[in-house]
Amino acid sequence: DGKLSSLLQEYDALLVRQLEAQRLHFEDEIARERVRALQRACGGEVSEREMAEAAALKLEISALEEEYREVLSRAMAAQEESRTLRRDNQALMQEQKEWRGGGGGGG
What we know:
Layout: H1 2-41, H2 48-102
Helix pairs in contact: 1-2
């Protein structure tokens, strides 16, 4: 029971990290759209400073997207492990129930 509880806590923590990564991902998508809107508003003419800022944002977005993929992958693996442990736990509880019900009177 303690192992299952520990795994569920770890799974919850992974989900929190996943949601945080998603939040960052969408914030960066918004930043990317702002850069595009700025480029359209300027008629395609953007200063060197703005281009450098856009390049920095692109690098940051790429790094966050990679982090997001990693977090998502870990969360999915933890979720699958959690499902497996729940199935195993249910099977063990059923076996214990059957053992207690059927094997207790042989003295």
